[in-house]
Amino acid sequence: MKVDVQAAAPIVFGRFTVIPLRRELLFDGQAVELGGRAFDVLLALIEADGAVVGKEALIARVWPDRVVEENNLQVQIAALRRALADDRDLIRTIAGRGYRFAAEPRPAAPSATTTLPPTNLQQPISDLIGRESELATVTDRVFQHRLITLTGAGGIGKTRLALEVARRLQPRFTDGVWVVELGPLSDPELVSVTVATTLGLTLASGAHSAERVAAAVGTKRMLLILDNCEHVIEAATRMTEALLSANAAACVLATSREPMRSQSEHIYQVPSLGVPDAEDEAAEALMRHGAVQLFVERAKAADPHFSPVRREAMIAAICRRLDGIPLAIELAAARTAALGIDGLAARLDDRFRLLTGGHRTALPRHQTLRATLDWSHDLLPDAERVVLRRLGVFAGSFSLDAAMTVATGLSLSAADVVDAITHLVNKSLLTADIGHTVAQYRLLETMRAYAIEKLSEHGELRTFSHRHAAYFRDLFEEAEPEWERRPSTEWLALQGRQIGNVRAALDWAFGADGDTDIGITLTVAAVPLWTHLSLMDECRGRVERAMAAQNTGTIPDYHRDMRIYAALGAALLYTKGPGPEIEAAWTRTLEIAERIGARDYQLRALWGLWFDRMNNGVVRESIALAERFCRIAGDSVDQPVGDRMLGLSLHYLGDQNGAQRHLDRMLGRYVAPRQRSHIIRFQFDQRLTAHVTLAKVRWLQGFPDQAMR
After folding, report:
1. Is pLDDT larger for residue 402 or for residue 309?
2. Which H or E element spans position 268?
3. 629-640 burial string, b = 16+ CB within 10 Å, else e?
4. d(CA 509, CA 473)
5. Does the structure show a pLDDT above 90 at 183?
6. pLDDT over 90 at 417, yes or no
7. pLDDT at 366 over 50
8. C-alpha distances in angstroms, 563 versus 248, 352, 491?
9. What are phi and psi of 268, to 5 degrees?
């Protein structure tokens, strides 16, 4: 008999009862301990009505939007079989296919229902979307850790997640689940009073200390939700520690933008909703992400005629720009009825004015995006406010050294900046990634926009934008020689993540209030970065912008000009194809390199001119350029590159024997640099391209077996 596991009615099989609404498994009326994911597996198997459920289907059901190993499913199946110890054969493994539920479940008689423990939880007015994994994780951990603090940025959905966890756990706490809303409090002394009032405790006048309230609770088995603790964090911590110390049966689930730092505390950082990568294109794949699902559901609530069809990519882009923050997404989706998707996307730069109009019954700070961020900002000490707004100039990740260099000064020491960053991370206003050799920090894009606004309000935007651009100019000037010495993977691991900061610095430097000298120098120094990342179109555009900004009336900087012409020549090779602009760029590079005696750039320019001649089919001219390259290279490590150039030119000219001679000599002498810098300087892996040419040469000479090898 097929049963509806989504219905409120309990389901019975054998001596077991499943209550889906309460997510509870009973054996002879007594609760059986079962984790959230194992419970989801059980529901999926019951729902299949005796059919085999594949492993992939179960994983997709239990871990939506997550990539997990099959052994995770096996762990949950084992846990479920332990819970069903009375009849372990209820869960049967079908080899090579999946699992099958062997019993015949049926709806329970009305008398099988039980009365839920008391609570002041309100019924939700909408579904919790995109939080299946987080909900299961936190639910499982409540009994492992008696104090769990949900932390995260404003609007990330800490309260909504906590309340849904509380609903799932209500049957497990015989003396109830109670929500204590601390957000409206302005006096920390009222925390214990508010707890006592919520629990209906009667205490003598003036006896509302944390210890007295905890003593009055006694040994009740209850779950206390302390919501919005950040502005009264010390008082909330005292209340929590007193309660858990006096009562071994009590548990506390707190929400706060910073941890309590209690000895028994388990911290769960609530993440943003899942957003698609920019490369994701398939509409079905986009719709599997929690942020997109939430946007669509809230947009439909605002406009019943709303349809996401053929707008999925734009919706995904909006969700990415809003960092997957549920509050921001809900506020944005509510605007689609008036603005449409395109209008909404076009106005996101003014997001703080746009994203207003939250639920009237919500706390004031949850009715607009600006109010949410104002709440967090206003709770900060002065030094942390200053550092937060100065960090707004960073686009993407940044190191502690970068933060200290840019934000220090004007009444703040380096130690002040480090201390402030530590606290901003703890308060969920700054994210930290310590999975690298050098720890990286980042502001969510919404928080960054807010910080930039504050920086502008204080008249400091130009000052710190200038510091930011100067820092990355110096960083990449120091890093540029490193790609000659370091393996490219190491160099890219250190510098590749700075592409956002380079872009932001250049945008400011060439803007109305910027510094073109910094912009030109940074452009030249960042060429290896664009090359490593294969961003040659962007490289060309940035280089052309820098060249247009050069002041021809000043004393020429030959070294800088040489590098910028070389960068333009390299970028044009891969973005525009053969033409006079390439020849002009490399010719100018060569002229300057010869003037200042820069041998390395002479070789680069000759290679560029040779490559351009080859692309244009002017092979005889290319031979002269290759021979000139060989003369300048002499006996250096670059000599084999010249042999390869000559070998390719002679091959196309029809002299296969001459081509073979140069290529054999090149391969016999060539030692690949550990740093592989030739790939940057001469664009290709030299040994690889030599073998490519030699294979064609040997085939044309009548030796196909050698060509094949």
Report:
1. 402
2. strand 265-269
3. bbebbeeeebbb
4. 11
5. no
6. yes
7. no
8. 70, 43, 20
9. -120, 115
In contact, 82 and 91? CB cutoff 8 Å: no
| Closest by Cα among 518, 520, 542, 547 to 531 | 542
Gap between the Cα atoms of 593 and 186, Å rounded: 69
Q: Which two tokens stand for residue 213?
A: 């309230």
Cα(381)–Cα(152) distance, rounded to whole angstroms?
Answer: 19
Specify the length of the chain in residues: 709
Q: Are the C-beta atoms of residues 329 and 322 closer than 8 Å to each other? A: yes
Q: Which two tokens stand for residue 437?
A: 């050799």
**CB burial readout 323-361, b (16+ within 10 A) else e:** bbbbbbbbbbbbbbeeeebeebbeebeebbebbeebeee
| Nearest-angstrom CA–CA distance, 399 and 403 | 6
Q: What proportions of the chain, in percent to the nearest 5, are helix, strand and coil?
A: 60, 10, 35
Residue 502 has pLDDT above 90, yes or no: yes
Q: Are 438 and 399 in contact (CB under 8 A)?
A: yes
This prediction has a pTM of 0.70
Separation of alpha carbons 387 and 398, rounded Å: 14
The pLDDT tens digits of the residues spanning 592-616 come to 999 999 998 999 999 999 999 998 8
Contact between 221 and 192 (Cβ < 8 Å): no
Joined together, the tokens standing for residue 137 give 């994780």
Across the strands, what pairs with 156? none
SS3 annotation, 38-88: HHHHHHHHHHCCCCCEEHHHHHHHHCCCCCCCHHHHHHHHHHHHHHCHHHH
